[in-house]
Amino acid sequence: MPSRFVHVANATVAVSTLIAAAALTSACGGSGSSHSGGGDKAKPTVSAAAPGAASPVGVKISDSSLGPILTDQDGRTLYAFLNDKNGSSSCTGTCIATWPALISTAPAAAGSGIQSSLLTQTARADGTSQASYNNWPLYYYVGDAAPGEVDGEGLSDVWFAVGADGKLVKQPAQ
User: End-to-end CA distance of the chain, in Å?
Assistant: First the structure.
């Protein structure tokens, strides 16, 4: 009898988590907000923290379906937010929950294909340091479940992968 209760309780927690993730994603989807998270294609995936946040991270160029783009040291796609201005991040609150910043306790290491002069750090309002490339603060997308995925590309027409040259790829979401 207790095992059936545990199974039902676990299923309830799993469903509740998916519902909460869906609500969070839709809350970030308005294109008129300066904190737009882009809920157009979001998957119900929740990330507690940006990968690599506790240790130094690396940025490299990886081949993708979009062409050569910036990724972290593990091949996870990095994105820029059009609402960021002058190298400062404007993604906070529910936005940062869907688009975690590439943060590190030390400056990001320039990997294969990276122009070191374009890779810098910017201070976030919460006191953390975020990696930037060509003055674009860098973010992950929680809907990208594995390295090489580019599901955040073009969401809400404000989120784009960053090309090797530091320019935004700007291919519309499908």
Answer: 47
Those residues with Cβ within 8 angstroms of residue 23's Cβ, 6 or more apart along the chain or in another chain:
none
Whole-prediction pTM value?
0.72
Rounded CA-CA distance 11/17 in Å is 10
The pLDDT tens digits of the residues spanning 80-139 come to: 999 999 999 999 999 999 999 999 888 999 999 999 999 999 999 888 999 999 999 999
Count Cα neighbours of 28 within 13 Å in the Cβ-side half-sphere.
31
So what's the pLDDT on residue 36? 43
